[in-house]
Write a structure and sequence with these properties.
Layout (H helix, E strand, L loop, with lengths): L2 H8 L5 E2 H8 L3 H9 L1 E5 L2 E5 L15 E2 L1 H15 L4 H15 L8 H5 L1 H12 L2 H10 L2 H8 L3 E4 L2 E5 L8 E2 L10 E2 L6 H9 L4 H8 L3 H15 L1
Antiparallel strand pairs: 1-4, 2-3, 5-6, 7-8
Helix pairs in contact: 4-9, 5-7, 7-9, 10-12, 11-12
Amino acid sequence: MDTKTNNVQLLGAGIYTVPQASRLSAVPSARIKRWLRGQTRSYQGREVFDAPLWKSSFDDIDGTLHLSFRDMIELRMVDRFRAQKLSMPYLRKVVGAAQELLGDSHPFSTSRFKTDGKRLYLEVLKLTREPELIEVLSGQMAFHSIIGVGLKDVEFQGGVASLWRPGLGRGDVVIDPERNFGQPVLGEFGVPTSAIKLSFDAGRSPRDISRDFEIPERAVNSALAFEERVAA
């Protein structure tokens, strides 16, 4: 990817290295790479390649995998399906069916899955033609419920995910691809949470930081709570 193309693609899309995406989404780095790169494994004495579940929004940057904001919302949703014990072969069919239904490479980060999840759930099951898949999903948690819970902290614009509120309490912290390249900021003030954490680690108290950045101490504490949570 050349620099000019790179700048155009990155503008307003958010950009995350795999470690950054892992930190924010709580999805292990190895899993992110496997889902977006695919993997080669041994099966019955021969090597087989499992294709990626979807392709990153970006071409590699300096030979390194990077994710967009939509990629990160997508991987959070796929991880929820895995948490419900959906096997990779079934999950692959669910993702493929969802992509086909919506004509979108990132179907789980669209507003249709939040607002019309129940009907789309049935359509996905119909496309996969897998009775066991129906049993897995209905026996654990309904497809549309997984989507609903997973997207409750996501806002949409033009039908696609545009803002994520991952913080605790008042939701002061936002992840917005239009701001700070998608890195977490205090939504009302635009201050990166990483800057708050750096000041705190340097020995500044929340009250000091509040004065330094001219923001309420409440917002400082929200940023610190968020940074502590994603560091765990």
